[in-house]
Automatic annotation (TrEMBL):
GO cellular component: a single term: membrane
Lineage: Eukaryota, Metazoa, Chordata, Craniata, Vertebrata
Membrane topology: Multi-pass membrane protein
Name listed for the protein in its UniProt record: S35C2 protein
Gene (name only): Slc35c2
Region (Disordered): 323-359
Length: 359
């Protein structure tokens, strides 16, 4: 009873963060589809969002430093390139290719294909020993992935180019969140705080994505009336406002994602995101007119059964995880306090944070 109560307490504390993540994620999905209709330069949009996220993260770090009077974690360029570059590159390509795909695919097809990221995350989590190989875990993944496939089967128009872009983004997403979890568990880097890791990753992400932008969008953008050859100042200000809104959504999404993955694991984040994806599909049917068959709704039920099985398994394993709980609590400050965390605090916990979390 005590373990069950503790689990319910943790779930109640995590629920606002999950809802925050849902709000930003659902909002930016429909925002990207809406923006691509009027401004078909997804890589430029991504680069501008990265710059805005960097500025917001720098501002948050400055405010936290003024509030606490303590210096924030700071990595040299050498450390960034050696330790953080793989995570930054995979993240930038994941986001860039995802935004690019909105030029070709519907929200439903995007969501269905993007859900395959959980399979890649499972693969890389097992390779990096962040997750234990269990038959029940594979069953959960198969139920969720199979349910999502059935839920979207023949409910969207298929576009091969867009499908390949989303599939590549899903593969990179598996690498992205696995490397991000490893990076945040390295206590000697002092990057357990989501603001600090966003601050350090954005410049590397910008550098990693810029060559792709230069090759595919540089020339079309230079001759486009959307930016450099605009005729009305009002049109330009409207575009800047749209891009700024996207940057705010992207910052909020990145912040909420990093909070979730730092408190759980990359696989748990993806499974929690399944319900969010179902919400997106539900909204797409009402807002964008997608039609779903009986088979699609059956897939919805299968997906929910996979999520329910995961919840049951987590509850059954809570007793076994109880012995590890003091270590986990010691390495996880409350979320609001996490923003003001003293970088030296993590050095004392290096041994516990280095140990991969098992879920």
């Amino acid at each position: 009873a005590g373990a069950g109560g503790a689990a319910l307490g943790r779930a109640a504390l995590a629920a606002p963060l999950v809802l925050l993540y849902y709000g930003f994620s659902i909002g930016i999905t429909f925002y990207n589809k809406w923006l691509m209709k009027s401004f078909p330069f997804p890589l430029l949009v991504t680069l501008l969002h990265l710059l805005l996220i960097f500025a917001l993260a720098a501002l948050a770090r400055a405010l936290a430093r003024c509030h606490s009077g303590r210096p924030r974690a700071a990595l040299s360029w050498a450390d960034c390139l050696r330790r953080a570059a793989p995570a930054a590159l995979s993240t930038s390509l994941d986001i860039g290719l995802s935004n690019w795909s909105f030029l070709y695919v519907t929200v439903s097809l995007y969501t269905m294909t993007k859900s395959s990221a959980i399979l890649f995350i499972l693969l890389f989590s097992l390779l990096f020993k962040l997750e234990e190989m269990r038959v029940t875990l594979l069953l959960v993944v198969l139920l969720i992935a199979g349910g999502l496939f059935m839920f979207t089967y023949k409910s969207t128009q298929f576009n091969a180019q867009g499908f390949v872009l989303v599939l590549c983004a899903s593969f990179l997403g598996g690498i992205r969140w696995t490397l991000t979890q490893i990076l945040m568990q390295k206590a000697e880097l002092g990057l357990q705080n989501p603001i600090d890791i966003m601050f350090h990753l954005q410049p590397l992400m910008f550098l990693g994505l810029f060559p792709l932008f230069a090759v595919f969008e540089g020339l079309p953008l230079s001759i486009s009336e959307k930016l450099f050859r605009f005729h009305e100042a009002g049109m330009l200000f409207s575009l800047v406002g749209k891009l700024f809104l996207g940057g705010i959504l992207a910052f909020g999404l990145g912040f909420s994602e990093f909070l979730l993955v730092s408190r759980t694991s990359s696989l748990t984040l993806s499974i929690a995101g399944i319900f969010k994806e179902i919400c997106i599909l539900f909204l797409a049917t009402h807002l964008l007119g997608d039609r779903l068959s009986l088979l699609n709704w059956l897939g919805f039920a299968v997906c929910l059964s996979g999520i329910s099985l995961h919840v049951v398994l987590k509850a059954m394993n809570s007793k076994g995880d109880k012995a590890l709980e003091p270590h986990k609590e010691a390495s996880s400050d409350p979320d609001l306090e996490l923003l003001l965390r003293h970088p030296e605090h993590g050095e004392e916990e290096e041994e516990v944070v280095e140990t991969p979390q098992q879920h």
